[in-house]
Structures are given as structure tokens and as C-alpha cells.
Amino acid sequence: MSRASIHLVRHGEVFNPDGVLYGRLPEFHLSDLGQEMARRVASHFQSQKNDGAKLVHLVASPLTRAQETAAPIAAALGLEIETDERILEAENRFEGLSGVKSRLRSPRYWPLLRNPMKPSWGEPYVQQVDRVMAAVQDARVRALETGGDGAEAVLVSHQLPIWVTRLAAEGRRLWHDPRNRECTLTSVTTLDFEGDVLSGVRYAEPSADLLPGAANIPGA
């Protein structure tokens, strides 16, 4: 039975001085700090490769911030970036707004909050898990075809899709408090597989020392 590992990487800090919930909006680039975070996570994977890890496949969401985070990883590992829309940010009805927390006091937005367990303001959590796990399984197969037993792939995605995928992988409920997500900027959530069966989940924060003071507005 072939072993494989899929690393789900959240993008780095985004330049977003107006505090917009950017969601799937185009042209939100990494900040200078975000670029440093991207280099940091690239070094994290380069060190693993130097220690013998078979990092053979790299995929990124089509959104700018994910592509820019993937670029130094591609350079460090000598891989091409493949783009997969299945790992992009979740849809969100608040996309494009700033100061979302204060706007929730307005009755005009209350209908969007009628079912936080789905959630009613955006793409259902179950739908996010289904599309991300489909991409993960495809990446697992591609990695094994390229690298054989023990092959690994990196998928650069976004906080909410990664987090709900982890919740599902660990058998936990999908609805949650966004403030409690363990998925910091350029964090690495690793799904380990034995054959096509998930055997474990790991988590790492290569940019932990860069997080204090970083802007961290969830895209969804």
C-alpha cells in the first residue's frame, strides 16, 4: 500500500490597507511581509527535500495571493505550478466589504446570518470539503505516479477551505467560530495517506515568528 502526504498551505499576508474581505476578488497581492512568509515556507519545504522528502507536485489556487505564495516554493523545489480552481477561496456574500464586523449590526445583513451552521452567507462547508478533498486525492495520485511510495504534494490554498477540510478529516463538526481556526498565514496542514485512506493529520507554522502584528482578515 503506497504512502503519500499532501501539504495544504495557506497563502501569506495580503496587502490590504482598507481591511476588505477580499474573498475571490482579483489582484490582492502579497504584502512585503507576505512575500517574506512565502520565502519562509519555501525554505521549510526545501529543508524537507534536502532531508529526503519526495516533494514532486505543486498546485495553487488561481487567486493572486496563492500564486505568489507558490512561486518561491516552485523555485525552491524545481517544480512547475499547476492551477486548480477546486482549492480557491470560499464564496462569500460579504466579499468586497470592509469592516464586516460592524456591518453585522445592520438589519439589512441579518438574513445572511440565518444559518451559521451551513453557512447561509456563503458556500456550504460540505461543498468546500468535497471540492478540496477531490483535489487532494487527484494530487495524491499524481504525486505517486511521479515519485512512487512516500511521494508528497503541496497545495497552496486559503484559510477556510483548508480549515473545514481539516475538521472533516479529523471527524469534527464543520461549523465553527472563525476566530478559533488553527490555520495561520503560510501554515502547513498535512494530510497523510495509506493508499487512498487518510491515516493522519499534522500541522506546522513555518512563519510563526512573523505572525505577531500581521494583518489576518479571513477571506471567508
From TrEMBL:
<dbReference type="GO" id="GO:0016791">
    <property type="term" value="F:phosphatase activity"/>
</dbReference>
<dbReference type="InterPro" id="IPR029033">
    <property type="entry name" value="His_PPase_superfam"/>
</dbReference>
<dbReference type="GO" id="GO:0005737">
    <property type="term" value="C:cytoplasm"/>
</dbReference>
<dbReference type="InterPro" id="IPR013078">
    <property type="entry name" value="His_Pase_superF_clade-1"/>
</dbReference>
<protein>
    <submittedName>
        <fullName>Histidine phosphatase family protein</fullName>
    </submittedName>
</protein>
<dbReference type="Pfam" id="PF00300">
    <property type="entry name" value="His_Phos_1"/>
</dbReference>
<dbReference type="InterPro" id="IPR050275">
    <property type="entry name" value="PGM_Phosphatase"/>
</dbReference>
